[in-house]
Amino acid sequence: MNDLTIELNIALLPSPALAGRLTAVSEEFAARYPATVRLADSASRLSLAPHLTLYQVPVPVADLRQLHEGLHKIAQAKVNFTLACTGLAYNAGEASLEARTEAPEALVRCRAA
Known about the structure:
- The protein is of the alpha+beta class and 113 residues long.
- The protein has one domain.
- The chain is built from 3 helices and 6 strands.
- The strands form 3 sheets. The protein has a two-stranded antiparallel ribbon with strand order 1-4. Strands 2-3 form a two-stranded parallel ribbon. A two-stranded antiparallel sheet has the order 5-6.
- The chain is globular.
- The two termini are 27 Å apart.
């Protein structure tokens, strides 16, 4: 069991109204471009809830306790920051639409913690 790895994804979930708008954009792009990943589409091969991934990393199961402690520390810091979308891009490798953002200094510090 110690050689198992999980994928850690820390993401922001939008309001229901924004999630609906993002789903509509996902459908529009899927009609024009090959799309492996679609938002809120139960009929597609891979469907995800609308979200903005802040951080993604593989974590060995053996390190989960340390990970939990680190995430708890970050959550207790209650750092506020603002994200702004600087554009959208098509990721051909994953056939998905991705929002581009500038990472605010507070987010960079959280990632380093």
